[in-house]
Design brief:
Lambda_DNA-bd_dom_sf, 6-stranded mixed beta sheet, HTH_LacI, 434 Repressor (Amino-terminal Domain), Rossmann fold, 3 domains, LacI/GalR-like_sensor, alpha/beta, DNA-binding transcription factor activity, 6-stranded parallel beta sheet, 19% strand, single chain
Length: 335
């Protein structure tokens, strides 16, 4: 009786689907090398007649990639969010034996050799996108939605996460909620980036009939910016200072916390703080910050996977949006 895929699956201790995809050289399948080797060995041992020895996947054509970070190397040290994304890219690249060139502050003039793909991290103007596209057809944007321009994009879900934060405060009977959000421009100054957290916050508060523009303060995503902005809010609002603040990233939130502590405003007894990104910084302060956990490493690894898929075969652009999770710590109180 001829050996079937079911026989191989049983002997190898894996699913029938896994056997089928491995024996058909499906490189998109996430399975370890040891498992692949075991399946092929079992197939040969059982004299599976359709067995073919694996050929090198077409993705091996990709050898060198560049990571183009919009931050300078020094700035990246101050914002662990973008560093974590880059580390995710490098980790996955190492798994696929890809050589990686790092380019900081979008300085693509530093590229002195041909590369097979580019992964960008951060925000880029239309002119910068066009310039990057001249380097390679294999281009993936992380944390910048360039899907409409025809490029793969890896993004974070802002709408649901911000709505969850607002709803959490609401459930704690904290309906006067302030916001510290960020404003940025691309390195060439040609594009001003609106903070999607502001838009999501405005929509969520409006749904509760509680949006107040005077409780929303713009900053620059830095620790010092958060500190100065919260000091301004304390001075401007006085006794009307909200009982809760959502802050758009961890550096600004730590600065805001410092300003509250200097003003002898108790956190979370008088003001609760909820941050965004959940980098290690959120746990380095006292009280530790509640924060929206963003899958930064997964954003990086997903970008590499998209790059390899496109190198393997042409396809339409993909827009991948990753979910988030609320992490509760001591800067917020629960009823």
């Amino acid at each position: 009786m001829a050996t079937t895929l079911k026989d191989i699956a049983h002997a190898a201790g894996v699913s029938l689907t896994t056997v089928s995809r491995v024996l058909n050289y499906d490189q998109s399948l996430s399975v370890g090398a040891a498992t692949r080797k075991r399946i092929f060995a079992v197939a040969e041992e059982l004299n599976y007649t359709k067995i073919r020895h694996p050929k090198a996947p077409s993705t091996t054509k990709m050898r060198k990639i560049a990571i183009v970070q919009w931050y300078s190397e020094a700035h990246e040290q101050d914002d662990l969010y973008y560093m974590a994304i880059r580390l995710g890219i490098e980790q996955r690249s190492q798994q696929h034996q890809l050589a990686v060139t790092r380019i900081f502050q979008n300085n693509i003039d530093q590229l002195t050799e041909e590369i097979d793909g580019v992964i960008t991290v951060g925000k880029f103007s239309a002119a910068q996108v066009n310039e990057l596209a001249t380097l390679t057809d294999n281009l993936v944007f992380v944390d910048d939605d360039q899907f409409a321009a025809g490029f793969d994009s890896v993004l974070t879900d802002f709408d649901q996460s911000v709505r969850q934060v607002v709803d959490f405060f609401w459930q704690q009977s904290q309906s006067d909620i302030g916001l510290i959000y960020g404003i940025e421009t691309t390195t060439d100054g040609q594009r001003k980036i609106a903070d999607p957290r502001y838009q999501a916050f405005s929509a969520a508060m409006t749904a509760h009939h509680a949006y107040q523009s005077e409780l929303c303060f713009a900053s620059d995503f830095t620790n010092q910016g958060g500190y100065q902005t919260m000091k301004q809010a304390i001075a401007d609002l006085g006794a009307q200072l909200p009982h809760a603040f959502f802050v758009a990233n961890d550096p600004m939130a730590t600065g805001a916390l410092k300003a509250l502590q200097e003003a002898k405003i108790a956190v979370p007894a008088r003001v609760s703080l909820f941050s965004f990104n959940d980098t290690a910084l959120a746990k380095y302060v006292y009280p530790e910050l509640s924060s929206v956990h963003v899958a930064t490493r997964l954003m990086g690894t997903t970008a590499v996977d998209l790059l390899l898929q496109r190198a393997q075969r042409p396809r339409v652009p993909q827009r991948v949006e990753l979910g988030t999770e609320l992490v509760f710590r001591a800067s917020t109180q629960t009823a």
